[in-house]
Amino acid sequence: MINQIDSSVLQSVNGNQAARRSESDDLHKNFMTLLTTQLRNQDPLNPMENAEMTSQLAQINTVSGIEKLNDTMDVINRQIDADRFMQASSLIGKAVLVPGNQMMMGDEGNPTPFAVDLKEPAAEVKVRIMDMNGNVVREFNAGSSGSGLQTIGWDGNLADGTRAPAGAYRFSVEALNDGRAVSYDSLNYAEVVAVSTGHADGLRLDLGGIFDPVRLDDIRQVI
Predict the structure, then answer these.
(1) Among 17, 64, 166, 196, whose CB has the most other CB atoms within 10 angstroms?
(2) Domain tally, the chain
(3) Which helix (H) or strand (E) holds 56?
């Protein structure tokens, strides 16, 4: 697959380079034609200075050098994109932790875990589980927690002790320290099912189900 991607990248780049080389060649020819005409028709009593001729030659060489640099950067950028695609593709079938506040209860009765990234330690972490309509179905205290990434598990039971039905749920957290709110980021686990390109800001990882696609840079943990 790597060879396939590289070949595709190089074919595209080679096509662009060929077009640029043609434009560059035309520019060189036009410049040399103008310079030759200028030399042929110059005033013998007031010929072009060597410095002026050298300056014009330097300008055309600078343009040519910039074009070659652009071609090189184009190859490098496309290869980086190909490498990122391969890196993202290797995540298909794996669970990742990304920003979000959603979770799934599977048909087998096991809910997906979720996590919070606490900015500082919390003496108390209260969790609220809601259905997709916003109705609270369970509340519990997850206890104290240190700062940083903390995974929280829900046993899957509703407030009345019965098992929650399969489907999508949301969660919210209230983290407190001496009665003061502790700031945090909400994170949910999901499985990568596909990788897509063509987005304005890069690759997207398709997490399937209720989860929105995310960028590769959004991943906080891979299981």
Answers:
(1) 17
(2) 2
(3) helix 50-89
